[in-house]
Design brief:
The protein contains four helices and four strands. The chain is mainly alpha-helical. The longest helix has 29 residues, at 82-110.
């Protein structure tokens, strides 16, 4: 028989969900590709859905998470705003601390259950 495992998912709220694993991954992909469209494609997500998720998160956070340049002859693109970078760093640090604490607690509570 397989051992127990666990999975955690961290979401941060104001009035509604402001930030979580989905928007975090989207922002990582924007950092990598320089484009919301390419980031959405990488996640097999429609551009319209990615835009909606980004706008909802920005609305709850109260600041822009990206800096967008409109298309044209040279093309557009997106970069992460300074506030977005700060939020990503804090989210990642908080998530890592929680995962470490959760792993220790999981071993304490479930190690003997094979």
């Amino acid at each position: 028989m397989k051992s127990f495992t666990y999975k955690m998912s961290l979401r941060i709220f104001r009035e509604e969900k402001a930030f979580g694993p989905g928007i975090y991954e989207l922002l990582l992909n924007i950092q990598e590709t320089g484009s919301l469209q390419k980031a959405a494609e990488k996640m097999d997500m429609a551009y319209s859905k990615a835009w909606k998720i980004l706008k909802a998160s920005e609305e709850q956070c109260g600041y822009p998470l990206t800096v967008r340049a409109t298309g044209g002859k040279g093309g557009g693109g997106s970069t992460i705003s300074p506030e977005g970078e700060r939020l990503m760093e804090r989210y990642e640090g908080f998530r890592n601390e929680l995962e470490e604490a959760a792993s220790e607690a999981f071993v304490r509570w479930f190690a003997d259950m094979e």
